[in-house]
Specification:
717 residues; alpha+beta; five-stranded antiparallel β-sheet; four-stranded antiparallel β-sheet; 14% strand
Length: 717
Amino acid sequence: MPDLLLELRSEEIPARMQRKAAGDLKKLVTDGLVEAGLTYEAAREYFTPRRLTLDIRGLNARSRDVHEERKGPSTKAPEQAIAGFLRGAGLSDISQAHIHTDPKKGDFYVAHISKPGRAAEEIIAELIPAVVKTFPWPKSMRWGPASGPKGRHYAGGVGQGGEAMRWVRPLQSIICTFGPETEEPVIVDFEVNGIRSGNVTQGHRFHAPGTITVRRFDDYVSKLEAAKVVLDADRRKEIILSDARNLAFANGLELVEDEGLLDEVAGLVEWPVVLLGEFEEEFLEIPPEVIRLTIRANQKCFVTRISGESEKLSNRFVVISNIEAKDGGAEIAHGNGKVVRARLSDALYFWKTDQADLPDRAAFAASAEKFGLDMTKPLDQRMARLDHLNVTFHARIGTQGERVSRIAKLAEELAPMVRADSTLARRAAVLAKADLQTEAVGEFPELQGVMGRKYALLQGEHVGVAAAIEQHYKPQGPSDTVPFDPVSVAVALADKLDTLTAFWDIDEKPTGSKDPYALRRAALGVIRIIVENNFALSLSKFATDSDLLAFFHDRLKVYLREQGVRHDLIDAVISPDADDLMAIVNRVKALAEFLETDEGKNLVVGTKRAANILAAEEKKGTQVASSVASSLFVDETEKNLLSALNQAESQAAQAIQNEDFSAAMRALSALREPVDSFFEKVMVNDPDEAVRANRLALLLRIRNATDQVADFSKIAG
């Protein structure tokens, strides 16, 4: 079967757009082919900084013939309905339709539609220009003769020549070949904005700028490689990573790996060449995180460390070039070194400035007094300035200073509950946002918390306080770790609970897929901190809004489902007023284990039967006795069930008070045999009204006993 090769070559595509664009191209083209009646065996997309490529294997040479019957209106329908039917069926006159008869509905029109198949080349020639012209780039420019005077490129607007072509960067050539492996492929002929499809491309713009004629994908890849272009982005990543590791090792160093940066640099080069640059050792007094971010952000380079070191960096960095220079890359490495040195000079200035006194610190005296700050300490001065400047957190919630006041109070209140020192928790909360006023965080916002910890240690803060300043933002995603140090836990919980309650107070809640303030992440963070630290904590003390408590329940359900917990068990355990998340998790775990036993499975059947009978009678208004009267017992099984209930209720209640939910389940399991015997020997709906009401009261006791642990009626099966 034939294969299709498509390449769209342009000026440089931003690295952040390449992977998605290649995926979009694959989806748009393959969806279009299938919609047109073609099928294919496999498709794979590729991308480099200057081209998007699609390799489609086993494509039909022709679409299938289509024969269908389209039912129309009654032969007595008004002309307007018949005209609509003709348009939809592609008929010019009603005489072209057939009349069918239905015994009940009478005669109606039917269109017998036949569409002959089309050659794949014809379909492709229509599809590709349409895909190119409507391609969903997040940002694109207008280009070509119609884009402006003398064909200049414009980011927006249309030039004097009419509608201009939109593409991320100006298109330069299009390859589109089609055919089986055993034959010479054909060029699928079409034109897009003056660019005619063909079988010619170009290699590396410096090393091999001449034209390359290709036939199909395999020789396209090999000819590009010979022209210094590695088509596969994943292979470029492998080359970069392997060569960078080897170069570092050869110089007694280790590469500090960075998957995000690796992805980015693989999108910046077509022919990766790895070089080693250098900067002065005096810059190593800057924190490693700052050095790494400076070099990463400005030069897209990797940092290295001396072999065997876990944190300390070396003064050598890895450059990824797109050129094999005649001097072995010496000038390229030297040029990158000059820029790195300039940027590190700025970083060193930030680092030293942040440790110095603020010249206007006297103006912050009122703020210092409010928070109990020590104005001889640089980080305290930054916190005082943050409050003094009234930096806004949110227009309707207030300033950062006001927020810090709330977090500090809340952290102090939470501290005993999470086994933290209240004084340390308050101190950590007061300083947690201070680094927002540092030069380093101003330059690199992603270092907030990290720099706060470093500056806190430099001014002699307790290690627990310093750790909490960094860790109170955690966890920042499902793969991030949670804090375990008690002081960090107190401040992290306070920060997230304040965020949630503040936005709930102004009715700014997540809706659908929209969550601009990451409130779902904050709630999940609270849940993970509590559960992974195994803390018993009453959320209703802090989340007084019942809707916010329900939001926590929803997030907890998501969290537990991702842990593989059955949704019906979660629903059985969570009640609207359940505010101890750890207790909910322990109940679910105990319930899941209980249901793996025969006692558990059988008890659920019996209790669900009891609950269903009781619910049906309650719905009908049948009288249920307020208490069980043993004097009305007719059968011995009623007496046995009451005795078992008295014992199970007492034991289960004591076990729940001790938060031993497994013991509570074991206590309830004793009900299995008396419940089964009761239903075997006794008819609940006895003709005697008093006996019936008494037996329904027994069922109510069963339901109440099991409800201490879970609502068994919600358990599936």
